[in-house]
Design a protein that fits this description.
By secondary structure, the chain is mainly α. The protein folds into two domains: 61 residues, no CATH class; 63 residues, Orthogonal Bundle (Arc Repressor Mutant, subunit A). Helix content is 56%, strand content 9%. Strands 1-2-3 form a three-stranded parallel sheet. The two termini are 27 Å apart.
Length: 138
Amino acid sequence: MLLLSQYVEANYAMRLLEEHPERIGYLLKDRVFDVVILLDALRRITEGETVIDPTIVSQLFGRRRREDPLAELTDREREVLSLVAEGLSNKGIAERLFITERTVESHVKQIFLKLGLAADPESHRRVLAVLAYLRASA
């Protein structure tokens, strides 16, 4: 789904991302002045990517949150989450931190629990955890 809007609605974009982290796009109409840009966005969405207008991304990263969703995480859990945000697999994280994959899995489960990310076949908890990390880090 590609949403074309005249308005910069960062809250709406965030809701879309939380509910549909893949195959979604939110572009401002002003940016779609060339058919090549529109076709590129549609191609990327059909390939499973998420396409968000740079103006909206800037607003999302510029917002300050009143409460830190990561406040309950231990230092090690924050470290693991930062490596998840870098795109590392559990095995890659284990190698980087010199711990077992089972320990990484345990940390990831605790991160999901503390962030309130229940198992749901309609969502990708790792993506949602990274979004929480990025929002808190902004």
